[in-house]
Design brief:
Blueprint (H helix, E strand, L loop, with lengths): L7 H18 L4 H14 L5 H4 L6 H18 L2 H13 L3 H16 L4 H18 L10 H12 L7 H12 L11 H16 L1 H9 L15 H4 L4 H20 L4 H14 L5 H7 L2 H19 L2 H12 L6 H16 L4 H19 L4 H11 L10 H4 L8 H21 L1 H5 L2
Length: 429
């Protein structure tokens, strides 16, 4: 009896299908699934092991690691706490004004730092302010908004969120035109304006109606008063801020690769004593690092085996072979926003990227606009708390699963419609 033999393309498709099922099922940890899929690509001979594990040394993954270290250093040196004190002095205890301030700050910071690191920095600030406001400001009315704003801000520049850097890496690995640092900014500004308007009006009222539970208790943090701030070294505070400024300058100027800039910044934070190596390893978001590394290996297998091209050609043939650029953008926008709310945005970007790029090459279109719309759509994961780390971290506010759906749905729909409306102006389609 002859054994059934599969070519590398078929094996890659099987691995991709199994990976997607496991991601949606949620039975196993995301890093296990992502790294397991990359390992399977090597074990079954789809790609060499050097390609399967190349994500661990990928420049984009190094950028994410370095940015996280810088973000943690800002908290460790007291910069975050000082920022909280400054906010409360500026806006007082008006909760709505405080909320809008947090939304703006989270979005803007997330454009230049990892949005995961920004949320990690902002939540203790809010907790400290809430503790010192005697109930006038609550964590439940701030935490979720911070996660959503960080998502929107993460779609504003090349380094804001994991999908951005994954797709940039895939573009580079495929020899296609890559994105510049601010390519994503113009299309993100309407969404930033909308999220600010949302929380200034109906969003705040909706939260007060939906969040009908007691505010989450403190997890050991206190108010960031004068006494606590005196425990921080002013030298380290200034040093960490200077490292942040130089990091952003390095990203924008392109003096080195983004990974090199971020890792130099991370080393500078450790060498100058802004954060210890023990604290770095303890606080690092290893889930994001491992998922990204594994997903890049999975994407390499899908791309190099020809599976991505096969999927792309199948979709094109099903659509009659005539797909306009606007239709292509719309397809991947809807597909991305749906998948982003049920599975990891990082994993989704790694799976959709090779397929989208193969379709663009088959149709003769530039792949960069499709990569951009996938990023914008993936950063609208507002319906569930499971798909993206910045939103998952806000579960500390005591929210129930459906609280995200009730508040996030109108926000997601508004941002999505604004995103699609901009395509003709941004891409001339």
């Amino acid at each position: 009896m002859r054994a059934i033999q599969f070519d590398s393309c078929t094996i890659a498709l099987i691995i991709l299908a199994v990976t997607m099922v496991l991601f949606v099922w949620g039975k196993f940890p995301l890093p296990v699934i992502a790294v397991g899929s990359a390992l399977a690509m090597g074990v079954f001979g789809v790609i060499p092991f050097s390609s399967a594990f190349s994500g661990f040394s990928n420049d984009i993954n190094l950028m994410v690691i370095g940015s996280m270290v810088v973000g943690e250093a800002l908290f460790e040196t007291g910069v975050a706490q000082n920022l909280g004190s400054t906010i409360i002095k500026m806006v007082g205890t008006n909760e709505r004004l405080f909320l809008i301030t947090c939304v703006v700050l989270s979005a803007v910071l997330s454009a230049f730092l990892s949005n995961t690191a920004v949320v990690a920095m902002m939540l203790p600030i809010v907790a400290a302010v809430a503790a010192s406001s005697k109930g006038a400001i609550t964590k439940k009315h701030s935490y979720m908004a911070i996660g959503f704003a960080a998502n929107v801000g993460g779609g504003m520049t090349l380094v804001g969120s994991s999908p951005n850097v994954v797709l940039q890496g895939l573009l580079a690995d495929s020899g296609l035109e890559t994105m510049s640092f601010f390519d994503l900014t113009l299309g993100s500004l309407p969404r930033l304006a909308f999220i600010i308007l949302f929380y200034a009006t109906i969003g705040y009222k909706l939260q007060k109606k939906v969040f009908n539970f007691e505010d989450a208790p403190d997890a050991g943090g206190g108010a960031t008063g004068e006494g606590e701030e005196q425990g921080f070294s002013r030298r380290k505070m200034i040093t960490s801020v200077m490292i942040l400024i130089l990091t952003i300058t390095g990203f924008v100027s392109g003096i080195w690769t983004v990974g090199a800039v971020a890792m130099v910044a991370a080393l500078a934070c450790i060498v100058t004593g802004c954060i210890s190596i023990q604290q770095v390893f303890a606080r690092m978001d290893w889930t994001t690092v491992w998922v990204m590394a594994g997903s890049l290996g999975l994407a390499a297998g899908v791309s190099q085996s020809g599976a991505g091209e096969l999927i792309a050609n199948t979709i094109i043939s099903l659509m009659g072979g005539q797909v306009s650029m606007f239709t292509l953008l719309l397809i991947f926008t809807i597909l991305s926003v749906v998948l982003a709310n049920i599975m990891s945005s990082t994993a989704t970007s790694a799976m959709l990227g090779p397929i989208a790029f193969a379709m663009c090459q088959a149709l003769g279109y530039s792949a960069k606009p499709v990569a951009m719309v996938i990023i914008w759509a993936l950063n609208l994961a507002f319906l569930t708390p499971i798909a993206t780390p910045p939103v998952t971290m806000t579960l500390q506010g005591g929210y129930r699963f459906l609280d995200y759906t009730k508040v996030g749905f109108p926000l997601m729909v508004g941002c999505l419609l604004l995103t699609i409306v901009t395509y003709p102006f941004l891409f001339g389609v």
